[in-house]
Amino acid sequence: MIVSSMTKHHPELSLIFHALADPTRRSILTRLAERPARVTDLSEPTGLRLPTVMRHLSVLEEAGLIATSKDGRVRTCAIVPEALEPVRTWLDEQRAIWESRLGRLDAFAMRAMKERTE
């Protein structure tokens, strides 16, 4: 099995993908992309109880995708957009690998078709 250098240098990649795998967490990130929000504001549209939303926020924070701050009893969350950079880099690596493979497959198919017509 080939292990990409990206995986070796960014162990948090698994944490990020895990965090992004859940639709509720993706929805929270979409909301936070607009502006920071209080935890209570994030929980309202989900229909989930506050402890459940807090667990989702904990996963997002552990992955580095959000940062939280507390002012008195009010906890506010903000997205950390640069945290997605390891994912973007890994996806770019994967795209390059597959484009190369598809290019070689296309060249092989073209050669095979040419040989067949000769």
Automatic annotation (TrEMBL):
GO terms for molecular function: DNA-binding transcription factor activity. It comes from the Bacteria. Residues 5-99 form the HTH arsR-type domain. InterPro entries: ArsR-like_HTH, HTH_ArsR_DNA-bd_dom, WH-like_DNA-bd_sf, WH_DNA-bd_sf. Signal peptide: none annotated. NCBIfam families: HTH_metalloreg (NF033788). This is Transcriptional regulator. It comes from Pleomorphomonas carboxyditropha. The lineage of its organism: Bacteria, Pseudomonadati, Pseudomonadota, Alphaproteobacteria, Hyphomicrobiales.
